[in-house]
Design goal:
The complex is a heterodimer of chains A (about 525) and B (about 120).
Chain A: H1 7-21, H2 27-52, E1 58-61, E2 72-75, H3 77-99, H4 109-125, H5 129-147, H6 153-184, H7 189-198, H8 205-222, H9 230-237, H10 240-263, H11 275-297, H12 301-321, H13 325-356, H14 369-384, H15 390-401, H16 408-435, H17 465-484, H18 486-500, H19 503-511
Antiparallel strand pairs in A: 1-2
Chain B: H1 2-20, H2 25-45, H3 68-99
Helix pairs in contact in B: 1-2, 2-3
The chains are: A mainly alpha (about 525), B mainly alpha (about 120).
Chain lengths: ~525, ~120
């Protein structure tokens, strides 16, 4: 067995308790170990991605129990790619958290950060539906801690809402898994695929209920309308580096949709034929539309970026809901781009909020306006999908993939008009925050109740501003590389999509092992 | 017995949803607990209900047995939901203590850049 497969879970699982128990009172050591851990995770992710490019699907049996009875981890092109994305995202964020001093504003940032990475990597690698639930919980528990990191009345209140919503989602997940288990008698995904295909069509009423419940759960995680209400409030009130890390959490939902509804309830399974795409596509279109309206209407930069995250999920799920090979390849490319772009915008938003507060209105100039506004400009271009960055290529691929689809007109209209409104919204925010600020005379004097001390402007300078900027430029570099090497990246995602839509290889790799 | 278990799950879920729609954190947390109880009983029943049957196969004689897997799943679910409830109680308590208000919704003054947010 190839032990590299379990390494992305084991490394953070060991590192996080180590940080809590041994390095509890040594922030510098915590930082060193945390960065080293993320670099190590990146190395592991590169290794397993290199192994997955051979196209062979590798299976890791935990405890050496054979597949339908024990829990398996499965390494294929998609899971390797998502683990790599997680590691690539984690590196600039952990550096930024150190550089901006965010990890010093509460306890246990680095430990929770690694627990979160463990949950995300585990969710990407597991081949068992109940184990997927467990890893969802691991990443959620860590995210509750990260979300309320630093404290404060408003953040804690937003935290209560976030935890409540996700607890309900977890309960729904258990109901879905229970229903599916009651019908099929298994929770191993490959085994489920076999059993679901064998069930006679007249007995599938309960199974369809389970499939739709499961879709609802993944839609909650992916913030699909009308289940997106948790996202703006919790992302905007979380510490923004943490919100940047949460960019991968919505992608876990999208990944699960893509995995389960190609493997288990695939497009050619009679029981759920046309059920998922028919519901998901309109929801994704509305998600994109409402997200752009949210960008236009936001009064606060963090909220605006949160709505940017919603629009990017909308575009992504439009591509996924087409359930074709070309569209899945486009979706996987777009996952990479949108995760990096969302994280970049959240980090830039944090820089803005630290210096002048987050309100989208003219204020006095802030330090380093030029550099930060340039970064915001790059992030906005990437997010809106304008050339020359990878957002343009990603949206082009999605549009191209939807050409033959029955609802192509609606998809094109929503994506193109949505992109336009996004450009307008981001341009409005950029103008108000970065340009108008120099016109000090134009600012109306603050209201008479100015005996309130100016909290936002009195924040101490960052401990390592250079490190913070370097990490944000690292995210920009990721986007540039993704644009320059769009060809090879697309080749990889096309082969990934091909692997996704031939689930027989996955099933025989998991179940048909003769050892 | 099936009717009893099914109605227990149904009633607990309904009561839980009713409580979750309340406006203060304490009833909401109670509602969440009720729903997790309901889902635990539901998971337990997914292996079919069997009375007085062991959860192991007997290789010497053909006796009824109950499906052990849902019991393992329920155990996991109980541990997770118990931990989660503890977490949400702590977060809700600190939210209450820091804002002197246990309403679950954010009031209009709770904008993201309210003073003291980064404290």
């Amino acid at each position: 067995m190839n032990h590299w497969i379990v390494a992305p879970i084991v490394l953070p699982a060991i590192l996080a308790p180590f940080i809590i128990m041994v390095l509890r009172y040594h922030l510098d050591l915590q930082r060193i170990f945390s960065v080293a851990g993320v670099v190590g995770l990146l190395g592991i992710a590169l290794t397993i991605t290199a192994q997955a490019t051979t196209g062979e699907i590798q299976v890791y049996e935990l405890g050496d129990w054979p597949a339908p009875f024990g829990i398996v981890l499965v390494l294929d092109r998609m899971s390797a790619m998502m683990v790599l994305l997680t590691a690539l995202l984690a590196l600039p964020i952990v550096l930024y958290a150190i550089g901006s001093g965010w990890d010093d504003r509460g306890k246990h940032f680095h430990a929770l950060f690694h627990f979160q990475l463990m949950g995300v990597c585990g969710a990407f690698l597991t081949g068992d539906a109940f184990n997927l639930f467990v890893f969802f919980e691991v990443l959620l528990i860590a995210s509750y801690g990260l979300m309320t990191h630093g404290g404060g009345a408003v953040r804690l209140k937003a935290g209560v809402q976030y935890v409540t919503y996700n607890l309900l989602g977890s309960t729904l997940f258990l109901f879905a898994l229970g229903t599916i288990y009651a019908v099929t008698g298994t929770l191993n995904m490959a085994d489920l695929a076999v059993r679901v295909a064998e069930i006679p069509p007249e007995d599938t009423a309960l199974l369809r209920v389970g499939a739709v419940l499961l879709l609802l759960v993944f839609c909650i995680k992916a913030a699909v309308l009308p289940l997106h209400f948790w996202l703006p409030a919790s992302y905007a009130n979380a510490p923004l580096p943490v919100a940047a890390l949460f960019a991968i959490m919505t992608k876990v939902g999208a990944y699960s949709i893509l995995r389960v509804y190609t493997l288990v309830f695939g497009p050619d399974v009679a029981a759920t034929e046309g059920l998922v795409g028919a519901w998901l596509q309109p929801a994704a279109l509305v998600t994109l539309a409402v997200g752009t309206v949210g960008i236009l209407g936001s009064q606060h930069i963090a909220r605006m970026v949160a709505f940017c995250a919603i629009t990017s999920m909308g575009t992504l799920l439009i591509a996924i809901s087409l359930f074709s090979e070309v569209a899945a390849a486009a979706a996987l490319y777009y996952v990479f781009h949108s995760t990096l772009a969302t994280a970049l915008l959240f980090l830039v938003a944090d820089m803005v909020m630290e210096r002048r507060g987050g309100a989208i209105s003219p204020t006095a100039p802030m330090p380093q306006t030029g550099l930060i506004s340039a970064l915001f400009f790059v992030g906005a271009i990437a997010m809106a999908g304008m050339p020359p960055l990878s957002g343009f290529i990603g949206k082009l691929l999605v549009l191209d993939a939807s050409r033959g689809a029955p609802d192509a007109n609606a998809v094109w209209a929503v994506i193109l008009i949505g992109s336009f409104v996004t450009i307008v919204g981001l341009a409005r925010a950029g103008t108000l925050i970065f340009w108008k600020c120099h016109d000090v005379q134009a600012i109306p004097p603050t209201e008479p109740d100015s005996e309130e001390e100016p909290v936002a402007t009195a924040i101490a300078p960052e401990p390592h501003a250079a490190l913070a900027f370097t990490s944000v430029f690292g995210a920009v570099l990721g986007l540039v590389l993704l644009t320059l090497f769009a060809g090879p990246a697309l080749q990889y995602t096309s082969k990934t999509a091909e692997q996704l839509f031939t689930p027989d290889n996955y099933i025989s790799a998991v179940l048909g092992r003769e050892e | 017995m099936e009717a009893l278990v099914a109605s227990a799950v149904g009633v607990m879920t309904a009561a839980g949803i009713f409580l979750i729609l309340r406006r203060r954190t304490f009833p909401v947390i109670l509602g969440l607990s009720l729903i997790t109880y309901a889902v635990n009983v539901f998971l337990f029943a997914t292996g079919r209900l069997a009375l007085d049957a062991p959860a192991v196969l007997n290789k010497y004689e053909d006796v009824p047995y109950t499906d052990p897997l849902p019991q393992a799943l329920v155990l996991t679910a109980i541990v997770i939901s118990f931990g989660m409830t503890a977490v949400i109680v702590m977060i809700a308590l600190s939210a209450y203590l820091s804002s002197k208000d246990d309403h679950i919704d954010m009031s209009a003054s709770d904008s993201v850049d309210a003073p003291g947010e980064d404290a």
